[in-house]
Amino acid sequence: MLEQLFPVIFVVALVAFILIKQIMHITQKIDENGDKPVFSPKDSTNFEKYSKFSVEIQNHIRKIREDIDSSKNSKNPTYILKDKSKEEESTELLSDFLRKLVFFETLLAKNKASDEIESELFEVLSKVDKFLRENIENGDQLADELRDNLYEVYQKL
Questions:
Q1: Domain ranges within the chain, ordered by starting residue
Q2: Model confidence over 13-25: pLDDT tens digits?
């Protein structure tokens, strides 16, 4: 019985230690900032930048989804699936990407640090890049073009 109790106590103590450290860190930030908001105007500007960039990415993903969706009957599509049997699966995956990107337009994203947002945006962009390279005709070329286009958009924001 004692052999089972020791690991439980150890885990509880570890969790309590981590919580105490996090609370101390948060209260220290509050003490340092006093009545000032925790986020500076620079952070607000970054939030707006990430929000606008997210919208740009969403527009590109919508174009990809529209091109591969046979029910849309897109004329002269740029993005053509290699395997037409994966159309439904592919459109659903692209919709998932869009749902993740919509988060960056919400006030909840404002509470995240810039590096955290950049990491999550990079993750989505990496998945879109992989999707294009694996599932779209001329995917390597189109993925490179998309990356270059989004880089230019990001530089302008």
A1: 1-38, 39-156
A2: 766 677 677 777 6
